[in-house]
Amino acid sequence: MAEYKRFKPDWAPKEKNEAFACSVMDGINGVKDTTVGNLNPMLLNGKRKTKRKMLLNVDDYVSGVSEGSRTILSRAITLIESNNPQHFAKAQQVLQRLLPRTGKALRIGITGVPGAGKSTMIEAFGNMLCNMGHKVAVLTVDPTSSVTRGSILGDKTRMGTLSRNEKAFIRPSPAGGTLGGVARKSRETMLMCEAAGYDIIIIETVGVGQSETTVRSMVDFFMLVVLTGAGDELQGIKKGIMELADAVVINKADGDNLLKAKVSRGEYERMIEYIRPATDGWQTHAYLCSALKKTGLKELWQVIEIFTQMTKKKGSFQKRREHQLLDWVHSMIDEHLHNLFFDDPVITGRIPEVRNAVLSGKISPTQAVAELIKMFDIERAACRHTGLFDIHE
Question: Less Cβ crowding at N or C end of the chain, within 10 Å?
């Protein structure tokens, strides 16, 4: 073991004194401790660690994402998620340049009630796919507090082994109060991951039930993760989410719960008989899975492969993608018109008075809307957003 000795500084009293408890260590024998290079090897011989480039231009983002840099990809997603209008225009320029590299990945949506084990299942499923040679990007959506507007964003911690896998990329994002926890930013994040070379995109949603319809409009295969004892058949049919699922997966089918899971599988199979298939030409079924024991994962992947081959052969795969693009355009129009209206200074100045009139019962909500619409000038509002959608540098 290396030896070292202690001595007191010159200003310390020679006799013992409770007020002075400081001592100086001269270093370990055999180690030159005269430079900061001993603390940071990158500083030896005058070498310094390359500083992170604080500002990236469009070319930096495009080249970094194309080369598969996870650091640049993370910063590109941050650019997309920014609410700064300047960042929005820059993000659209980057996305437009990367668009030819997108569209080749398989998009899988996974939802389910809290506690169904979605994160644990995604980690086991993602590790299996990475071992098979795939590159997997996991986009998780965390609930946003309606009080503090904050999110925990702890999914990378819950997927510890997958987050350390070089072939995987995990990006948690706040729901931000949007329906189903996904919106335009989630779609564009997905495209960025595809441009970076990830061939399988998994989107884990908030899991709040019927609002998950937004997820269906952006993925190829939609998976519902459920637990045993979720209710009777009638209660299961009432859940609108069942009509959107291409597969129902009963998780935690292991140990003492295996028998219950098999019973639940039969119940869900009977429920599915009364529901129209989510995808033309594909019959939805229920499957057993254990993320803890890693059973049923290979079978589930085989189901997804068969689904992909069958829907591509029948043309429904491409039709769904085309419908999703048009749906994206319509939702973007709705969002843009909404922002134009509520960002207009004339409208924002009039809203307090109209709101008070509605609350006092002087006018009806319908009359309030009619008055605000009459005051809204679309040309005036559009001038304030000039250049927002300019994708040329």
Answer: N
Rounded to whole angstroms, how far apart are CA atoms 152 and 141?
10
Number of residues assigned to the chain: 393
pTM for the predicted model, two decimal places = 0.77
Q: Tens digit of pLDDT for each residue in 122-136?
A: 999 999 999 999 999
Q: Copy the structure tokens of residue 393.
A: 């540098």
The H or E element containing residue 25 is strand 24-25
Work out the number of other CB atoms within 10 angstroms of the CB of residue 87: 14
**Which residue, among 372, 346, 374, has the nearest Cα to 357 in the 3D structure?**
372
Mean pLDDT across the chain, nearest whole number?
80
Helix axes 365-375, 345-359, angle to 10 degrees: 160
The set of residues, in sequence order, having a beta carbon less than 8 Å from that of 217 and lying 6+ positions away, is 324, 327, 328
| Ranges under pLDDT 50 in the chain | 1-2, 31-38, 144-154, 177-181, 209-211, 232-234, 237-238
| Structure token pair of residue 129 | 């796919």
Say how far residue 174 (Cα) sits from the centre of its chain: 8
What tokens does 347 get? 């409208």
Q: Is 139 helix (H, G, I), strand (E, B) or coil?
A: strand
- 247 token code pair: 């597969």
